[in-house]
Structure formats: structure tokens, C-alpha cells
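Reopening this one. Same input as before:
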Amino acid sequence: MKALYLGTWNHIQPVLDFPETKDFIFIDTQPRSEFDDKSFHLEFYKPHFVLRLFDVCNSYGFELIKTVELNSNYYKQIFTVYQRLYYLYHPIPQYINPTLLVFINKKTQQTIKYYISTNIEYNMDISLAKSLSEYDSLIVSGFIPNKYLFSFFNQPKTFIGYTKTKYNIDNDDEIGKNSIMNTNEWYMYFDYIILVDYITGNKTILNKLSDLF
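Same output, byte for byte:
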């Protein structure tokens, strides 16, 4: 399997829970912002996110082998006029442009492609589009992806849901009605559903998405 996980933060545990999976695609809008849109707010910027990520990946035996800035000019699209003037004379916050970090674990032969400061709605490029076309399982833990993700489904996926996640969200609010959980035709998108215990890693096979509630 190739697994996709949006909103990963530093929850790298799935690499241990699924040792047979050799390729992981992790995506997070941080450190630019946890609440990302087409703007930049310094109060949402997480300056220590990447260093913490490096430490956690290293603790799991993963070595950073490549760093690729996917769009070096993206900051110009999200800065206000004032910010553009300010950052002419001050260092631009590090890693606020969409960037790909590639980690390899030589012992387990696993690879992590971690897209940071990346929003699949705003920061699509050839590399990310290719990654989204290749995965066959979706990891959900904490963050529930938007239905926009379905536009990249070329076949049904395996749904891997971790406990300690609120799956039964309010379908009347903007986030709930647009989430991947708000679908009556789950079988079109997911043909296999696995519930994973966040603490122990124990797995349970489910029959339908509503069994997660």
C-alpha cells in the first residue's frame, strides 16, 4: 500500500502500525498556518514545527535526504502590501512556501514524502498531483479532510481511521457538510475500512463508515 495522511503534524506512528506500507505521503499546512487560507498571519505561523518534525522522524529512524521548495514565490501571493514592505527588510519566515521533505528509513525500507506548508486546494503542482494519484489508502486521525479530496480518487481507497478522532461531526456547519464523512455513498470512495487504536495500534475491520461513530 501507499498511504496518504492529511493533517499529519508529527503523528508518525502509522509507519510502525503499517510496516508493510513502504510509501507514505504526509501533508500539512503547517508551519505556515494550522488554519490556512490565501493569506499569511504571523500569529498562526509555527516556527518550531519543522525542527520538531525532524526530531520525531529521526526518533523513528528516518533520515532527511531531500528538501524541495515547490513554489519559491508563493509568499508573494499571500502577503499584504504591508507585509511585502516589511519583509523587504526582515527575513521571510522559513518554510512558508509549499515544500517537499523526503525521509528514508534504511532499515525498514520505508519512505515518507512530507509536504509542509501545503494546501491541496491552493498549492497543487506536478509533484503533489503525482503523489495524490498514486496512493491507495487514506489515513485519518484528528483532522477530517474536505470532500475536495474526492476529486483525486481514481478508484476506491482503504480508509484507515484512528481512535481519538471525532468522526460524527456536525453536518449542518460549513466544515461538516463539506467533509469526507458526509457521504451516503461511502462505498464509491472506500472499499475497505480499518479502525486503528491510537495507543496500541490494534486494528479492527469495519463494514461501513458509520461504524466509526
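So the earlier flakiness isn't reproducible anymore. For the record, The chain has a mean pLDDT of 95.
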